[in-house]
UniProtKB/TrEMBL annotation:
<dbReference type="InterPro" id="IPR000515">
    <property type="entry name" value="MetI-like"/>
</dbReference>
<keyword id="KW-0813">Transport</keyword>
<comment type="similarity">
    <text>Belongs to the binding-protein-dependent transport system permease family.</text>
</comment>
<dbReference type="InterPro" id="IPR035906">
    <property type="entry name" value="MetI-like_sf"/>
</dbReference>
<feature type="transmembrane region" description="Helical">
    <location>
        <begin position="143"/>
        <end position="163"/>
    </location>
</feature>
<keyword id="KW-0812">Transmembrane</keyword>
<dbReference type="InterPro" id="IPR050366">
    <property type="entry name" value="BP-dependent_transpt_permease"/>
</dbReference>
<feature type="domain" description="ABC transmembrane type-1">
    <location>
        <begin position="101"/>
        <end position="301"/>
    </location>
</feature>
<keyword id="KW-1003">Cell membrane</keyword>
<feature type="transmembrane region" description="Helical">
    <location>
        <begin position="31"/>
        <end position="53"/>
    </location>
</feature>
<dbReference type="GO" id="GO:0055085">
    <property type="term" value="P:transmembrane transport"/>
</dbReference>
<dbReference type="GO" id="GO:0005886">
    <property type="term" value="C:plasma membrane"/>
</dbReference>
<feature type="transmembrane region" description="Helical">
    <location>
        <begin position="169"/>
        <end position="186"/>
    </location>
</feature>
<keyword id="KW-1133">Transmembrane helix</keyword>
<dbReference type="Pfam" id="PF12911">
    <property type="entry name" value="OppC_N"/>
</dbReference>
<feature type="transmembrane region" description="Helical">
    <location>
        <begin position="280"/>
        <end position="301"/>
    </location>
</feature>
<feature type="transmembrane region" description="Helical">
    <location>
        <begin position="224"/>
        <end position="245"/>
    </location>
</feature>
Length: 315
């Protein structure tokens, strides 16, 4: 009997989610369904790139410069073993896109996780404690927002590259990118969480928690934060797309991932010199993948914003 009850728990939870307001909205929104399906396909290919990709673009033994600039298989002169053709270094473009997408998604998700930790912590403290601490933290956020993410990232990465040298920078480029993109965008979370906390801390359940003797940290983390998750989920989807675009832009400018560890941005950059010489696929195909990835994430973010906002949802 106990095993039967245990097996029924996941099914009942899934049923509640599927029949909830969000599940109903998702089923009735073809754009959200198609966007999620495309995102899952891209994410699946990126996660299992070592199993799916016919070649390893990180292995010099599998790269032959004589295979460079083969066109995709639907163009005359292609080599059947290279589905999307090859780049200027002779790497299989299909394999390189799979590995590059995995790298771009990893940087985007880790950078957003760093943004969330910093922004949520600062927003909780500013909104709950208030006073001079609130004024100080929000002024810091205003100063941070007055500079664009790319400008801060370009300055930081250029100085870092000059200080440590290109070889060391390329070795730790992924960590530098995650750090600079994460730190540059924390005010988005901080301002959103602060506004929610200012509204939530005046409600009766917070007063009850204080009467019971709970400390400020427990009240913020265990009581106020769970009621602030809706806007956090919405902003996270948008920030993941922004982080991927920022990484691609920095890699395109030569301040991101090195050619030996291709991301979507560095792939687009490496083929840009060849786009007018006829080898357009080196830039165009990774560019299409980047646009589709960012588009479906933004569409999912728009749907989530609508369904989690009672003023917009009309289900």
């Amino acid at each position: 009997m106990s095993s039967l009850s245990t097996n029924e728990i996941p099914a009942s939870r899934w049923s509640r989610i599927w029949n909830s307001k969000m599940g109903h909205s998702f089923r009735g929104n073809p754009v959200a369904v198609v966007s999620l399906a495309i995102f899952l396909v891209i994410a699946f290919g990126a996660i299992f790139a070592p199993l799916i990709a016919p070649f390893d673009p990180y292995d010099p033994g599998q790269i032959d410069i004589m295979n460079s600039e083969y066109p995709p298989i639907w163009i005359e002169g292609a080599d059947p073993q290279f589905l999307f053709g090859t780049d200027d270094q002779g790497r299989d473009l299909w394999s390189t896109i799979l590995y590059g997408t995995r790298l771009s998604l990893m940087i985007g998700l880790c950078a957003v996780a760093l943004q969330a930790v910093l922004g949520i912590s600062i927003g909780l403290l500013a909104g709950y404690i208030g006073g001079r601490l609130d004024s100080l933290l929000m002024r810091l956020a205003d100063i941070q927002l007055s500079f664009s993410t790319l400008m801060v990232a370009i300055i930081f990465l250029a100085v870092t590259q000059a200080m440590f040298g290109s070889e060391t920078f390329n070795q730790y480029a992924i960590y530098f990118l995650i750090a600079v993109i994460g730190v540059a965008e924390w005010p988005q979370y901080a301002r959103t969480v602060r506004a929610t906390v200012l509204a939530e801390k005046k409600k009766e359940y917070v007063d009850s928690a204080r009467v019971l003797g709970f400390g400020p940290m427990r009240i913020m983390v265990r009581h106020i934060l769970p009621n602030s998750l809706s806007p956090i989920f919405v902003i996270s989807t948008v920030q993941v797309a922004n982080a991927i675009i920022s990484e691609a832009s920095l890699s395109f400018l030569g301040l991101g991932m090195p050619p030996s560890q291709p991301s979507l941005g560095s792939l687009i950059s490496s083929g840009f010199d060849y786009i007018f010489s006829g080898s357009w696929w080196i830039t165009a195909i990774p560019g299409v993948v980047l646009v589709v990835l960012v588009l479906v994430i933004n569409l999912l973010g728009d749907w989530m914003r609508d369904v989690l906002n009672p003023k917009l949802y009309k289900g």
